[in-house]
Amino acid sequence: MINLASEITRELPASPLTFGIITFGIFSVLLYLVLRLDR
């Protein structure tokens, strides 16, 4: 998963800040779904 992310960052001309925001958004959505399904 980390290797895939590094390959994507290499191909896309996205800045590390943009990549961090996207990663944070995906992580927050996954965490929200996990907490919602847990209840």
Can you describe what's shown?
It contains 2 helices and no strands. The chain has helices at 2-11, 16-38. The chain is elongated.
**Which term fits the overall shape?**
elongated
Number of beta-strand segments: 0
Given helix and strand content, the structural type is mainly alpha
Radius of gyration: 13 Å
Q: How many structural domains?
A: 1
- What is the helix content? over 70%
Largest beta sheet, briefly?
Answer: none
Oligomer: single chain
| Mean pLDDT across all amino acids | 81
Point out poorly predicted stretches: none
Order of helices and strands: HH
Give the arrangement of secondary structure elements.
Layout: H1 2-11, H2 16-38
Task: Name some characteristics of this structure.
elongated; transmembrane; mainly alpha; 0% strand; 39 residues
Summarize the structure.
The protein is mainly α.
